[in-house]
Amino acid sequence: MTENNYRLEKEYTIPFEIFREGYTEFQKKFVFPQANITSLAFIILAGVFVFAVIQDNSQYFAYLLIMVCLAMAVRQWYNPRKLRRNLFDVFKTMEKTVYKIGIGDGFADISTISEGNVENSVDNPDGEQEEEEEEEEPLPEKSRIPFDENFSLLEYDNFFLMFSGKTVFYIIPKNCFSESENEIIRELKKSDK
Length: 193
Hints:
This protein has three helices and nine strands, in the order βααββββββββα. It is of the alpha+beta class. A hairpin with a 5-residue loop joins β4 and β5.
């Protein structure tokens, strides 16, 4: 299918507030449940070792295992939050990035049109413009999301979350689209069943 067959084709940017809300919702749905279960498992395991120490306090290896289990529980709880903080810091430098979505029959294409933090030239003392010597990194390839059994779409007040499986997701801000364009995106939710 060619690009001319898109039902919707539009360029958009993702404001930081929308990205923060969207990524937090993604973590609530897919990351935190698994991290919480793993943390709970380590805490229960630490409890088993505490019980073993209560029974026989000469088991010094059990003390070490208690500390390791508690450290792993804290790590499982902390790492998703640290990752989110780091990702937010990186996204702040890319907030002006322009993306493009194309929705066709049975798929959506999402691509990066331009980087938001790229400077093309530097002033020299003579007032002339010179190209930077650094080579620009190529933009990522277009991503195609098929509307298959792995596809899902969630709607929130300010954005849509488009999922392909449990690891790939896209944030589509509603304020960049007209109501009729938002309705086209909304219809994808009905077609994913």
